[in-house]
């Protein structure tokens, strides 16, 4: 990322999946350009103590953590780390294995809690600070996960925290121009041998 995207010198990973994000933690261990905020159930897999060294802000939860405690941790920690590190970009792991009833995540967050979590993250990162954010959906092993994710994304759109590029007239015009350019570039020789 640092070699391929101009202007990105510092990145933050906000990992709100139920599991510790030991993969990216091991990848970025010792890399001062990356700040990792990881909030996870401390009592489940993987429990990778070596990888925990890469976490700059660790929020460990217990089994059956509810919306109130979960969201309060976000309100307390996310603004503080954004102020402390001031990243150029945020990568947000929006795991839904935090949902109540998920036997692997073993937390008790409601669908409304997931939607509020995502709203809090996008409000802090995009609306208040104007930072670009990449939202990655992950985790979640129940039938209702896709619906919860879709409802959350629709809620972010309704609150204008994200936009549909096809609704943006500038982007739509640009796409039309690119399409016309591609059509002209073919020389109108479709079907000729």
From TrEMBL:
InterPro entries: His_deacetylse_dom, His_deacetylse_dom_sf, Ureohydrolase_dom_sf. It comes from the Eukaryota. One of its GO terms (cellular component) is histone deacetylase complex. GO terms for molecular function: histone deacetylase activity. Residues 7-152 form the Histone deacetylase domain. Transmembrane segments: none annotated. One of its GO terms (biological process) is epigenetic regulation of gene expression. Pfam families: Hist_deacetyl. This is Histone deacetylase 11. It comes from Geodia barretti.
